[in-house]
């Protein structure tokens, strides 16, 4: 297995975990998460924006 083949999925995993942490931090701080982070997580940013506080 070449380094490129191995590192691709690792980078993708790191980017996904980073996006999840970023979105969680934004939600905790009552801020709007970045659209790119929501998209990476498979969340529709427009639908997320319509969610009200519980």
Write the layout of secondary structure elements.
Blueprint: H1 3-28, H2 35-40, H3 45-49
Structural class: mainly alpha
Which of globular, elongated, flat, extended, rod-shaped describes the shape? Answer: elongated
Largest sheet: none
- Helix/strand order, N-terminal first: HHH
Query: How big is the Rg?
Result: 14 Å
Give the total of domains.
Answer: 1
How much helix is in the residues?
A: 55-70%
The span between the termini is: 48 Å
- Number of distinct beta strands: 0
Low-confidence stretches: none
Strand content: under 5%
With helices defined by DSSP (H or I, 4 residues minimum), what is the helix count?
3
* Average residue pLDDT: 92
Structural summary, described in words:
The protein is mainly alpha-helical. It has one domain. The protein has helices spanning 3-28, 35-40, 45-49. 6% of the residues are buried. The mean pLDDT is 92.
């Amino acid at each position: 297995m070449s380094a490129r083949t191995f590192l691709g999925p690792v980078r993708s995993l790191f980017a996904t975990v980073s996006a999840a942490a970023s979105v969680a931090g934004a939600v905790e701080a009552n801020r709007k998460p970045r659209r790119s982070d929501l998209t990476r997580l498979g969340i529709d940013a427009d639908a997320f924006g319509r969610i009200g506080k519980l």
